[in-house]
Structures are given as C-alpha cells and as structure tokens.
C-alpha cells in the first residue's frame, strides 16, 4: 500500500453536482461564466439541490421558503452573545453556532428525504442570519431581523449593515455567492461527505465542513489575502514584499490551486468586480497591487490566482470586516455542502481509506516503571 500525499489525483467519489474539466467549472453542466453573469444565488442553490434550474413559480416558492426560515431561535442569539466577543473569530463562532442551531431543530436526527430537505432550507437560510448577527453583536449592535422579498444577497447585506444595499453592491455580492457555491471535492466538501457517510446528521456534516473551510490553505485564505494587502500598504511595496516572502519560502495567499493549473475560472469575475468596486470606493490601490502580485507570481512560480485572491478586495470594498470574509464563503458554500450531503445519503457507503504504515515495527512492551 502506497499513500498519495494529500490524496492528489485520487478520484474519491462520483458526483453529478459540479465538474472541473480543462480548467472550466460547471454546476450540473452549466458553465460558471453563464451562471455568474445571469443567475441569482437562489437559482444556483436550487440547481445544485435539484439538478435542474427552477421555473419562475418554483423559484418564487423557493425564495419564499428561504425568507420564511431566516429568523434565528432566540437561544442561538443568546448563545452568540455569550462568547468572549473581543477574541472569538467569527469562523469559530459560526462553527459553534451551527452546531447549536442543530439543538433547536426537532428534526436534526430525522433522516428521511423530506426532513433533510426542510433542514437544508433552514440551514441555508439561517447561516446568513448567524454570520450577520454575530458580526453586529460583537460590535455592540443588535441583530437586524431579515427582510422578506428582497432576495438572499440583498437580505444578507441588509442584516449585516441595517440598510438596503446599493444595486451594485447587491449585484457584486450575488455574483460572489454564485461563484463560491460549489467546487467538486474540495477539502470542506469532502469533510462533509466523510462525516455524513457514517450516517451522521446534516448539522454534524456542516459543522465539520466549516471547521475544514476555516484553514488558511482553504477558505481562510481570503482573510489572509487582505491581511497581506494591508501589510503591503502601497503599490510600490508589492513586488519587494512578495520577493521577500518567496525567499523565505512563504506561501502567497490566494495563489495556487490543487486542480487548476492555468487559471481559476472564477478569479476573472472577481478581478473585474475588484476593479469596479475599488474604483467606486476610491481605493484603486488594492486592485492595482493585486494585479502586480498576480502577474509576478505567475511569472516567477507559474501559479494562478485562485477564487480567494480578488474576493478579498471585493469584500473589503463592500465594507465587510476582514475576519467575516471566510464566514461569507461558508454562507455560499453551504449550498454545495448540502448538495453533496444529500448525494452522499442517496448512495451511501462509509468512507474509510487506508494508511500506509511507516512507523516502527515489532516493539517489545516495557512496563512503565522500567522505562528510562
Ligand atoms: C477556496 C480555496 O480553497 S482556493 C485555495 C486557497 N488557499 C490559498 O490560497 C493558500 C495558498 N496556496 C496554497 O497553499 C496551495 O497552492 C494550495 C494549498 C491551494 C494547493 O496546494 P498543493 O496542490 O498541495 O500544492 P503544494 O502546497 O504542494 O505546492 C506545490 C509547490 O508550489 C508551491 N506553492 C503552491 N502554492 C503556493 C503559493 N501560494 N505561494 C508560493 N508557493 C506556492 C509550493 O511551495 C510547492 O513548491 P515546492 O514544490 O518547491 O515545494
Ligand atoms: O477545490 C479546492 O480545492 C478549493 C477551492 O477552490 C474551492 O473550494 O472553491
């Protein structure tokens, strides 16, 4: 038995949700470029869960269901208030809060298809409310109740900021949600599938996935990109900063990808939005700096920018706190996690690979009192 480090190149499941082929990403056969330009996030969620796009009345009903399920149980709000608000990272708060949400769901451990569909809606709706509520509570503000009928992207920004977003903000945020919704067997999705393949419940699968997304080699990279841009500070510092980091064998956040080698098809959409929004808010340096870094890393290391690279400056321009970037990723990616969880349940087998043992062999047990 020989291990493949990081399971690179291993095909671990069949899936009909999303596909990456020749550096093109499709959701259920629809190219991400078409979806990013044309679809609402709700249409994409419906697509991932039902493997087809909704007609108008199905979409209206789906949006309505999300609206109806957005409000949080009071116990969850109280739980969020009970954290050490000065130090808890919003991603840790989210991981815990989703687990707590499960305690308020009478159907948490009911595994039939209908119950799972209802839980899927509740989780998709409420994760947005949790992220927005925690972002406000830690600033001493009260959570804002969701507003019905304005759409998921606008509703999230409304709950976060307490005011309706501008159309350009809503459009950018919707596009970011669409672009982050699913990505084949990325680390957090695989985590979710491994968890529920034991026939554990959906809340456990999502909680596990949030834990995996949090790391800086995965979703946590978007926050780290903004930290790096802040440290660089001005355009002229960008290349010296990156050169030094590479000399120190550091990884440049938002660069590189396990699967994409020529480019991440999502990055160009986020790059375009970054240009628009940084100009709009009068902070073009974030975009200009990012372009310099991208070009330099491409030339020096042959690595492309990934989805986390330009999303950082996009979210910054939307006025979102930098440590809320990764929770926002989760608000979108939960749609993909749920699709994969449902797919796993539908054709389940325990996921249990083997390890290549490389430790010592045939050791003799020595009683503790005789050990040196
Ligand atoms: C939503 C997402 O999860 S997208 C990914 C988000 N993560 C990041 O942006 C973090 C930065 N990027 C990385 O760490 C990596 O590119 C990953 C984790 C995304 C993919 O990694 P892997 O496929 O495992 O590649 P691995 O880490 O083995 O790197 C291969 C080589 O490229 C180098 N490399 C890869 N990414 C980077 C980077 N961002 N900066 C500098 N060097 C890099 C490695 O140092 C290594 O070089 P070596 O062979 O000389 O030792
Ligand atoms: O697929 C991956 O490894 C990481 C990624 O880009 C994502 O999850 O969107």
From TrEMBL:
One Gene Ontology biological process: tricarboxylic acid cycle
CDD domains membership: BSuCS-II_like
GO MF term set: citrate synthase activity
Keywords, ordered alphabetically: Acyltransferase, Transferase, Tricarboxylic acid cycle
UniProt keyword annotation of Acyltransferase present: yes
Domain of life: Bacteria
Active site residues per record: 257, 308
Pathway(s) per entry: Carbohydrate metabolism; tricarboxylic acid cycle; isocitrate from oxaloacetate: step 1/2
Family matches, as SUPFAM superfamilies: Citrate synthase
InterPro entries noted in UniProt: 2-MeCitrate/Citrate_synth_II, Citrate_synth-like_lrg_a-sub, Citrate_synth-like_sm_a-sub, Citrate_synthase, Citrate_synthase_bac-typ, Citrate_synthase_sf
Reaction catalysed by this enzyme: oxaloacetate + acetyl-CoA + H2O = citrate + CoA + H(+)
Pfam families: Citrate_synt
Gene3D superfamilies, alphabetized: Citrate Synthase, domain 1, Cytochrome P450-Terp, domain 2
Gene Ontology cellular-component annotations: cytosol
Entry keyword Transmembrane: no
Family: Belongs to the citrate synthase family.
PANTHER family: CITRATE SYNTHASE, CITRATE SYNTHASE, PEROXISOMAL
Name the record gives this protein: Citrate synthase
